[in-house]
């Protein structure tokens, strides 16, 4: 290790005195462990919230509902108010100049703009 | 406000008695750890883990938090980016969590065999019991912690500010965090999770959308937009517009105000060295080099030519010598004599000789004298074609064959002659015309030039028109010229063919099929069979030739004349040297567009209510809802959490809440004293209180009381 790296104590030591079980004991080297954790979705599924009264607050039912107001439409490129919508790219745009820009955009960029509001075409 | 990271190792760990709790604010963006009763956390760092490879030794190491970027050059981070223990606002990867805790305790100065202090650690609202128990297990088993308490960061912050008199016992805490935003109602200083609501949007999403927008706007500077940099930009420049629509309109109109609101980030840019025009010497030197090279090439060509001539001469001499020798050899011996040379007969040698002499002459640069040859021809014609004038019946079959051949040869040679004659006459005619032209020009040069121009214009238009018709099929609606549909790619004839094919394909089968009853029907196939693109007719060709002649004439006479076709290519954008402006990142609408997603999560595809509406949702969810309670709550709204640092947040929220509340109801929105650190401070105060021990649970409790108890475990904040 370079002296300045040691000086900055950048690297977490592998052995720490205050630990009862060291990291290398818990996850021995060279052993494939696979995935040993669950995603949030799986955690929530395992919680079995449906077995409990819905009056009790839990992680799922405290989520806020969809908005009651209609979604404000803004131009995907500039952020201005967007009265128009391009049926070819499905992008929203504010005026003719931006429409020109949209039509000259390569498809990859169009998809990235759409992905920003989670409307991109996803091929699986 | 830039991101603060304090990772100095503390030395006074052993001075604290084992009853002093350690307080941890385990936020999704940053990890803060310190001692209960103190006013500030001791260690703060970003809650991330990287496991890069050390370049020199090749071993995988663990690096927690943010570090000096200049030191990261010793590590290969390409295969592992920064990782977090959080999914949303829930801890799910306890391996990463362990690294973070290791680092936190290490920097707090822990040395003993275990962490012998009670721990107060924050969690999200309604943390799933799985995450809770895993965390408890980790702390008990690995660190030997005697007891644990879990609390919610926003509640601690509210409590802290309530103690300072900033908000009341009843109120709302609005907490836009890093990955999620919560609204929690408080009654008598206790959070009511029943009335709580969460939208999965926070500072992370703001930074992410800013990063996306900027890299889409400036694709050339994509590498500049690292997460850390964009986070800094967000904290420095983003604000919340009091009314998004009117603010955006302001920018759309581009008024003077806007210029002040637009921020510009100048990337490092070095002006390119200005190229001086090459000096006289330089030009002369270059010309000399060029000349020298030309000379060398010429010399090489000359040498090659002379060597070829030499070779050919040798060959000719050899062949002549061979012929000479042959004369002395008797007829019978010829084959045996020639077997060594590779020739079979005397004729062959002779033809080879003529061939070589011809090529020799060519190499020497003597042109074959055409005139002489033709004269030769005329003389020879009679004897060459001696059979032509003899009637057929006087000839043998063989001779008849010969006669036919001669006839053919004669007609072709005569044809050639005639063509030559015609060319000659044309030449004369052209000369005569140009003579005439010249005379007219001499009479009145200006008029002549004008006439020429008019003629040129007419012709070029005509040719142009023809071309257009050929491609567009005469439908000259202006759209066709600029559009790029598939129709424009075919010319008129091809399109006609496509039309025929499609009508043939779709019209058939309707009603009775009478195709083929009439003979004309079959013409269709002829039309369809090929692209009728024989661009035939001679008339236009003449026009084009005339056009070429005119333009060359004009070029001769008028030095200012520019060919029409030459004009178009100059419109192609030339290479433009990069300027300072190309290295500027301009942030206009983005400054308030990105934070606006907190109010309109729909803009990034999260179908949930925004900050202001959440207040209404939260109030409606209260089990004991009454106007009285709602009024009391909205009279003390506390905003806390990192994302409420945006300027304009308080005003906007106040306006938003006013919209959903009945007219005249009291509304008071206050910002926490320190939206970022108040959660830790509140927790520190709480853990220092003497009743804190009643709220903790020990290892024994954890294993005896079971999961269901842990699920319902909840801290009492008002002690």
Structure description:
- Chain A is mostly helical and 124 residues long.
- Chain A contains 5 helices and 2 strands, in the order αααββαα.
- Chain A has helices spanning 3-7, 23-26, 40-46, 96-104, 107-116, and strands at residues 84-85, 92-93.
- A two-stranded antiparallel ribbon of chain A has the order 1-2.
- In chain A, a hairpin with a 6-residue loop joins strand 1 and strand 2 (92-93).
- In chain A, 21% of the residues are buried.
- The model of chain A has no long low-confidence stretch (mean pLDDT 87).
- Chain B has 719 residues and is of the alpha+beta class.
- Among the domains of chain B are: 13-47 and 85-166 and 674-709, 2-Layer Sandwich (Nucleotidyltransferase, domain 5), CATH 3.30.420.40; 203-263 and 588-671, no CATH class; 289-364, no CATH class; 395-443.
- Chain B contains 25 helices and 20 strands.
- In chain B, helix 4 packs across helix 5, helix 12 crosses helix 13 (445-472) and helix 13 (445-472) runs antiparallel to helix 17.
- Chain B is elongated, with a radius of gyration of 48 Å.
- The model of chain B is unreliable at 368-375, 474-485, 533-537 and 566-570 (pLDDT under 50).
């Amino acid at each position: 290790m370079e002296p300045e790296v040691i000086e900055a104590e950048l690297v977490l030591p592998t052995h720490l005195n205050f630990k009862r079980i060291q990291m290398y004991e818990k996850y021995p080297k060279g052993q494939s462990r696979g995935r040993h954790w669950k995603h949030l979705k799986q955690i929530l599924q395992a919680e079995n919230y449906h077995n409990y009264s819905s009056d009790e607050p839990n992680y799922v039912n405290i989520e806020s509902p969809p908005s009651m107001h209609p979604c404000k439409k803004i131009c995907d490129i500039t952020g201005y108010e967007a009265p128009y919508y391009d049926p070819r790219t499905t992008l929203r745009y504010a005026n003719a100049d931006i429409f020109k820009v949209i039509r000259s955009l390569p498809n990859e960029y169009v998809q990235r703009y759409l992905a920003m509001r989670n409307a991109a075409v996803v091929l699986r | 406000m830039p991101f603060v990271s304090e990772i100095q190792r503390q030395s006074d760990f052993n001075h604290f008695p084992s009853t002093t709790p350690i307080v941890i604010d385990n936020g999704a963006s940053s990890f803060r750890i310190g001692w209960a009763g103190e006013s500030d956390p001791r260690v703060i760092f970003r809650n991330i883990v990287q496991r890069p490879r050390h370049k020199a030794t090749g071993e995988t190491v663990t690096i927690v938090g943010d570090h000096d970027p200049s030191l990261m050059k010793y590590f290969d981070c390409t295969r592992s980016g920064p990782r977090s223990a959080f999914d949303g606002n829930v801890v799910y990867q306890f391996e990463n969590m362990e690294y973070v805790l290791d680092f936190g305790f290490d920097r707090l100065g822990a040395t003993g065999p275990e962490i012998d202090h009670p721990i107060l650690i924050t969690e999200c609202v309604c943390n799933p019991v799985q995450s809770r128990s895993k965390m408890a297990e980790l702390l008990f088993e690995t660190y030997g912690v005697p007891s644990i308490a879990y609390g919610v960061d926003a509640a601690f912050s509210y409590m802290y500010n309530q103690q300072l008199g900033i908000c009341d016992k009843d109120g709302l805490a609005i907490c836009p965090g890093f990955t999620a935003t919560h609204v929690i109602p408080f009654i008598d200083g206790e959070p009511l999770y029943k009335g709580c609501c969460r939208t999965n949007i926070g500072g992370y999403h703001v930074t992410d959308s800013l990063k996306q927008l900027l890299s889409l706007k400036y694709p050339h500077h994509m590498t500049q937009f690292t997460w850390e940099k964009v986070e800094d930009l967000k904290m420095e420049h983003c604000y919340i517009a009091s009314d998004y629509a009117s603010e955006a309109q302001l920018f759309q109109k581009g008024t003077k105000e806007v210029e002040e609101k637009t921020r510009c980030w100048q990337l490092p840019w070095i002006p390119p060295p200005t190229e001086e025009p090459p000096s006289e010497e330089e030009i002369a030197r270059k010309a000399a080099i060029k000349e020298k090279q030309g000379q060398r090439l010429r010399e090489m060509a000359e040498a090659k030519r002379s060597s070829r001539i030499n070779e050919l001469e040798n060959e000719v001499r050899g062949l002549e010598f061979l012929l000479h020798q042959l004369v002395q050899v008797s007829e019978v011996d010829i084959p045996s004599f020639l077997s060594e040379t590779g020739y079979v007969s005397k004729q062959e040698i002779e033809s080879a000789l003529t061939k070589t002499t011809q090529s020799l002459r060519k190499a020497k640069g003597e042109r074959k004298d055409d005139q002489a040859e033709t004269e030769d021809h005329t003389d020879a014609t009679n004897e060459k074609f001696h059979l032509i004038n003899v009637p057929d019946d006087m000839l043998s079959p063989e001779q008849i064959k010969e006669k036919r051949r001669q006839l053919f040869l004669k007609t072709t040679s005569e044809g050639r002659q005639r063509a030559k004659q015609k060319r000659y006459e044309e030449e004369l005619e052209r000369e005569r015309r140009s003579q005439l032209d010249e005379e007219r020009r001499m009479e009145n040069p200006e008029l002549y030039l004008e006439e020429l121009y008019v003629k040129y214009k007419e012709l070029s238009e005509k040719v142009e028109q023809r071309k257009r018709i050929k491609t567009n099929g005469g439908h000259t609606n202006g759209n066709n010229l600029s559009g790029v549909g598939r129709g424009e790619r075919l010319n008129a004839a091809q399109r006609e063919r496509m039309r025929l094919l499609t009508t043939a394909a779709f019209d058939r089968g309707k009603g009775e099929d009478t195709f083929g009853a009439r003979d004309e029907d079959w013409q269709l196939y002829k039309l369809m069979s090929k692209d009728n693109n024989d661009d035939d007719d001679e008339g236009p060709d003449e026009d084009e030739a005339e056009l070429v002649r005119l333009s060359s004439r004009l070029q001769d006479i008028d030095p200012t004349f520019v060919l029409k076709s030459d004009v178009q290519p100059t419109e192609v954008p030339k290479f433009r040297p990069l300027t300072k402006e190309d290295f500027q990142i301009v942030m206009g609408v983005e400054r308030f567009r990105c934070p606006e997603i907190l109010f309109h999560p729909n803009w990034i595809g999260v179908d949930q209510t925004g900050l202001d509406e959440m207040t209404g949702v939260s109030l409606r969810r209260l089990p004991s809802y009454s106007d009285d309670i709602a009024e009391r709550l909205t009279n003390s709204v506390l905003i806390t959490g990192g994302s409420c640092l945006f300027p304009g947040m308080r005003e906007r929220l106040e306006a938003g809440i006013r919209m959903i509340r009945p007219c005249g109801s009291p509304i008071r929105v206050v910002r926490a004293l320190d939206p970022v650190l108040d959660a830790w401070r509140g927790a520190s105060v709480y853990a220092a209180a003497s009743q804190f021990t009643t709220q903790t649970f020990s290892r024994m409790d954890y294993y005896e009381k079971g999961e269901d108890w842990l699920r319902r475990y909840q801290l009492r904040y008002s002690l």
